[in-house]
Amino acid sequence: MQKKILMFIPVFPVLSETFIEREVDGLVRSRKVDVVVVAFRKTVDFRSKRAKGVTVYERLSITEAFKSLRFVFQRPARVLRAFRVLGLGHLYPFLKSVGYSQVFSKQNPDYIYSHFLSEPSTIALGVSIILNVPLAISAHARDVLEYPDLVKEKVRHAKFITFCNRNALEKAKELAKGEDTSKLKLTYHGIDISDLGSPNKISVKKPGKNFIFSIARLEEKKGIEYLIGASQMLKERKVPHVIYVAGGGPLFETLDEEIRKLELQSNIVLLGSTPFEDVVQYLNLADYYVLPAINTESGDADGIPNTLIEAALSKLPIVTTTAGSISEFLTSDNALIVAQRHATGLADALETVINDRELGESLSKKAFDKALEMFNLENNISELEDLFLN
Fold first, then answer.
1. What are 88-119's pLDDT values in tens digits?
2. Of 99, 154, 225, 298, whose CB neighbour count within 10 A is largest?
3. How far apart are CA 95 and CA 85, in angstroms?
4. pTM
């Protein structure tokens, strides 16, 4: 009999988290486990019919909250234990966990599997204790580096916690010192290379010679301000280029104003939030890929950005930095690596790869091979299933 896995993902799907939708699709396709996703809302349309078919949207209504009070009377010891584990400082997540025990119980799960080591898995932890259902967690980057919550308690109670990059894994080990950290597993996200093939419908055009593409949410850790500086230098050096950056975010207006101030509108364009179908077309049209990521002062950083994996599988020469866990995948052997916060370094690297076609082809082939080896979707799903079934 299949184990039923309830995946708790508060917002699903999200454009910047396509790897989660791939994971759901892969688990459903494999059929070794029975999957249901419980979410509050979505921000984009589904790409996977399989993932859409197993997703239930349910916020905690007044009716469900009232019904959840039954656990206080039926399982007082477990409710009290959940309160003690979460603590008085997490009173609101505790109350949510009581309420969502009612929502989750309707699915009769054998496992509760929460994405993010922040508040979502805190709620899932409480539900797990109240319902006496095993807990598993998938941790990523920012949720570990900036917003980790009750890490010791989660390591103590969870059957396993997966991490998609070594940087986040090592940080969690530090935070969970004294607990059984053998439960913490390094499992890379899988990418389905068929998603990146030549699209059936062409709706975008190559904007010009030496087309450089980047996919980045416009926030500090993506370092786009330094890419703008690099573009200015390339223009001054009379190196023809056009850079498109796909992705919205809080810095859109600030960065767009800087582009206008430097009169770089014909060289660098912020596309804003871009459908994945268009992103794939740009990846197929691009000559080079760049991601000038940085580690912020607050400690926020990328893990291994999925966009770099997608660029590698699109056979693009890549220019990037050592931020986050990028160096687990890309090194000087398969990409041009520059210092963080270094516009001149970015300009030099882009100029180098533009002027040396043979170098670009060599780097892109090595990055492609490494991506195929590290981020095989079937292997990723198989590893995850083994954790659930063993």
1. 999 999 999 999 999 999 999 999 999 999 99
2. 154
3. 13
4. 0.90
